[in-house]
Structure formats: structure tokens, C-alpha cells
Amino acid sequence: MFRVTKSNPATEADFISYWDTGRRPPRRRPELERSFKAISCFDTLARACAKAMEYQLGEHVAELDVPESVAVVQSHTGHIDLEKTTPGELMRYIIAMHPANPETRVEI
Question: How do residues 9-68 score in pLDDT, each as one tens digit?
């Protein structure tokens, strides 16, 4: 699982939901509010990098090993919402950091 971050190393600020930053969905629908309260991730590094570049979300991608205790809501598009967790907990699940720009990525 992969989360786009602005920092490397990532900080708790990189794992704050849209809701907790004060953003609200354009329409008041329960599924949109749930998604805004969750932490947004992606199923592949390539998808996270593509979204990071497309929407200028950040320069880095944190690779996460998330335990089963964290609620995961995955869509068919590869987008994942993490629920029932905190930024501090997510920091402990980082297993690697990657550059979001594929031109600067070094494969080993």
C-alpha cells in the first residue's frame, strides 16, 4: 500500500485526512464524508506516483505494511481509504520511501 507524502522522511502531517485539514466534500453524502475522514492511499507504487504527479500531491511515496486491524476500503480504481487509524500509527507502518517522479527513481 502506498501513500503520497510531501516529506522524506514522512511526518505525521503527511498522514492527515482531508477532513482533519478542514476540507469538506462538495456534496453532503455519507460516502463522501467517510472518504474525506479516511487516509487516502493507492494499491501500487506506479498508481501513487501517477496521482502524485497528476495532482501535485507530493514529491515522495511512503510504502506501508498495514496490519489487518486497520479498516481498508478499496475501490476498483486502485484507490484505498484507511480508516480506524491515526497519523502516528501509520508512521510506524512505513517500510520504504520512494521518489514520486519516475525520472528520479532508482530501481535496485
Answer: 999 999 999 999 999 999 889 999 999 999 999 999 999 999 999 999 999 999 999 999
Q: What is the pLDDT of residues 79-97, one digit of tens each?
A: 999 998 999 999 999 999 9
Main-chain dihedrals φ then ψ at residue 83, nearest 5 degrees: -125, 165
CB 37 within 8 A of CB 83: yes
Beta bridge partners, 40, equal 81
Q: Which amino acid, one-letter code, is at 47? A: R
User: To which residue does cell 517500510 refer?
Assistant: 95
Q: Which residue has the cell 494499491?
A: 43
Alpha helices in 29-86 (DSSP H): 30-37, 45-55
Would you list the domain boundaries of the chain?
Answer: 2-99
Q: Which three cell numbers stand for residue 51?
A: 496521482
- Do residues 107 and 76 touch, judged by C-beta distance below 8 A? no
| CA dihedral sign, ordered 72, 50, 37, 39 | positive
